[in-house]
Each structure stands twice: as C-alpha cells, then as structure tokens.
Amino acid sequence: MRPFKVHILGCGSATPTTKHHPSSQVVEMRGKLFLVDCAEGTQLQLRKAHCRFTQISHIFISHLHGDHCLGLTGLISSFGLTGRTASLHIYADGSFEPLFQQMMDFFCSRLSFSVCFHPVDTTATQIVYEDQDVTVSTIPLDHRVPCCGYLFKEKPTPPHINREMMLLYNVPFSHIDTIKEGRDFITETGEVVPAARLLIPAAPPRSYAYCSDTRYIPTLHQLIKNVDLLYHESTYDSQYKHLAAAYYHSTAADAAKTARDANAKKLMLGHYSARYDNEELLKNEAEAIFPHVILAQEGLVVEVGE
Predict the structure, then answer these.
(1) In the predicted model, what is the mean pLDDT of residues 32-52?
(2) Catalytic pick among 67, 213, 228, 254
(3) Coil/strand/helix, residue 184
(4) Which of 13, 18, 60, 281 is the most exposed place for a label (fewest CB within 10 A)?
C-alpha cells in the first residue's frame, strides 16, 4: 500500500507551553502532503519533520482561533522566499476571506505564485477537495466560532492481477484490462475462468478524520463511521467537564465515546490543556471506554490503517 500517514507538528491548545506547539498536522497520502491547521511555529515544525514545503499545495483551516491559523501568513511569505511557483490553495470559513486578503495585500503582495482561497461552509458536510486518488470532506463541529473538521478518504483502487494464475491459464496480457473490469476469461479449450480467480482484491480504502475544537456531539460518529484513524480534541479530563462545556471543548471520555460509536479502528487524542504535565491520565480515561488510544505528540508519525 502507498503511504497514508499523519505527521503531528503541534497538539497543544491555545496557551503556549514549552512542551507542546499549537495545532498543526500534515496528512500524507498518495504522494501528496496536505497541511491541516497552521498555528504559530508551523513552518519550523515542518522543517523538523522533514516535510518538503514544495509538496504542500492545499491547506485546510478548521476555524479562526489563533492557535489554529496564526502561522498561515508567515508560512505563505516563506513559500515566496523559496521561489515557489506552484499555486497554493487555502480552505477556511468564508468569513475569513476579507481579512485573509488584507493580510495577503499587506505582507505577501509580491509572490511568485497564486494563492486561491476556497470558502468553506462549516455547517455542511461536503467534498471540498477531490482528485483521482483522494477526497477531503468537511465535518461540521460545535465550537465558539464556525468550525469544521476534515475527513480524508482514499478512493477505491482496482484489483491486482494474479500473475501466477495468469500464467497457469496462459492468459494473454492483452486481456488484463477486461479481466480487471470483471469479465471472465475463456481458454482455447472453452474453459471459463472466473475473473475473480485471476485477481487479487485491492486493499480497502483508508480514511482519517480530523476533529479539532468541538463540544461533544452525540451524532458526530454518524459522519465518520468506520474511520481508520480519528483525531479528536481532548482538551480536558472529566474532572473539568464544566470547563469543556463552557468553552465548547471535549474531554477524553467524550472523544472515546465518539470513537466507540463510530467503530473507529484507532483514536488519537490531542489539543491538550496547558494544565497537564502528563497526558497519560487523558489516555487512561479514554481507554476505559475505547481500547485503541494513542496520544498525539510533536514528531509522531502515525500510519493510517496500520
């Protein structure tokens, strides 16, 4: 299978700490790098992660709080200093567009590449990016400002040819395309060889859901059913559920309930409050509800579907 990885650049919340950077990730799939959220320090974290700037053409912003977007202008400016010529696409809530254009006019007015802003409706589930390999869809969330997550999904790939069976039945290679389409092969003696016997099923498509700042949504699992990897904010443990409710955030238990109800294969916690020196208590709380939990940490690379 081709790589499908999530590179954690930052997994802290709004208050700066010496331990965690604020939110930013790179989703690597089918040879493409997608940047998700772009807090302060993102470009330095990209260098530490050895993610090539030139491979990032699409940036998805979940919402317009500083710990998710204040690094965007600086990153675009740095792209200009590297002599970039490839277009850059920004996806964010539509209300950001006027301010974004002002920042571009003031700080990035002489770029050697075009920057295309794509307004996102954070209240709807819709595909905002698609190519021959991948779709990226919005996941409406419940925060103090318009906010959405993003669901990254591979498109199904055709089955693979079983070369040993092809040789066994002396199937000409000119028949490969028709066999992949599901047509049976007829030998010179008239024997019908089912296409399924000549094929190896392709690996099932993998998916990754990024759910940033949000209150617990009992129906959220319906939008991310059977996801391979779910990143869900877990700013607090249940001791501080009153703060989670007040500030429209989630506890580790909330994240685990969503993963359980979605039948996710794995849950990654993140967006930790600065009050925690050790996030193991968040992991322990989540594991009491959902067993397959990992903690996001800067520098962590997670293989989706592994």
Answers:
(1) 95
(2) 67
(3) coil
(4) 18
On average, the pLDDT of the chain sits at 94
Residue spans of alpha helices (H) in the chain: 42-48, 66-69, 72-81, 97-107, 163-168, 176-180, 241-246, 252-262, 280-287
Asked about 261 being catalytic, the answer comes back as: no
Rounded to a whole number of angstroms, the distance between the first and last alpha carbons of the chain is 11
145 Cβ neighbours under 8 A, 6+ residues apart: 63, 64, 65, 93
To which H or E segment does residue 7 belong? strand 4-10
Sort strands 192-193 and 148-154 into parallel, antiparallel or unpaired: unpaired
Tell whether the model's pLDDT for residue 137 goes beyond 90. Answer: yes
Q: Of the candidates 230, 202, 229, which has an alpha carbon nearest to the alpha carbon of residue 304?
A: 229
> What CA–CA distance (Å, rounded) separates 246 from 240?
10
Rounded Cα distance between 306 and 304, Å, is 6
Residue 31 structure tokens: 């040879």
Residues 6+ apart with CB under 8 A from 100: 72, 90, 92, 117
The residue behind tokens 């030998």 is 187
pLDDT at 179: 81
How far apart CA 4 and CA 125 sit, in angstroms, is 23
For residue 96, what are its two tokens?
């950001």
pLDDT reading at 180 higher than 90: no
Sign, CA dihedral 108-42-20-119, equals: positive
Q: Which amino acid is at 89?
A: H
The length of the chain is: 306
Residue 195 has pLDDT above 90, yes or no: no
At residue 93, what is the residue type?
D
187: left (phi over 0), alpha (psi -120 to 50) or beta: beta
Higher-confidence residue: 109 or 88? 88
